[in-house]
């Protein structure tokens, strides 16, 4: 590893770079984890807004299968250290889920 500080990417605003430069290594690692999760959320939202239907078949601009009501929302479930998106909604006292697709890869 070089003794020189890394060059910030051009796409990162200067004020963010300055803030990151003042952080401890622990804060930087936590910021990186947060940024990764935020990027995943925004990418998912973009896919849903585009209506590409990743992981779901059927009609609707949001890729929602016919069996999933419009009131359903997307949730993330972790199974065996892997994350998956599920449509989830309530009918009376029961909560229903339907598989949507993987969070990482295979999309």
Automatic annotation (TrEMBL):
Classification via InterPro entries: DUF6788
For bias type Gly residues, the affected ranges are 52-61
Top-rank lineage group of the source organism: Archaea
Where is the region Disordered? Answer: 42-75
Q: Pinpoint the DUF6788 domain residues.
A: 69-104
Name of the molecule in the record: DUF6788 domain-containing protein
Q: What organism does the record attribute this protein to?
A: Haloarchaeobius iranensis
């Amino acid at each position: 590893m070089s003794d020189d500080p890394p060059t910030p990417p051009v796409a990162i605003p200067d004020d963010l770079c300055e803030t990151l430069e003042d952080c401890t290594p622990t804060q930087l690692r936590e910021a990186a984890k947060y940024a990764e999760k935020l990027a995943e959320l925004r990418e998912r939202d973009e896919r849903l807004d585009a209506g590409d239907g990743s992981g779901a078949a059927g009609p609707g601009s949001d890729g929602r299968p016919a069996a999933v009501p419009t009131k359903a929302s997307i949730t993330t479930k972790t199974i065996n250290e892997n994350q998956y998106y599920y449509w989830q909604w309530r009918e009376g006292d029961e909560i229903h889920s339907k598989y949507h697709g993987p969070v990482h890869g295979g999309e």
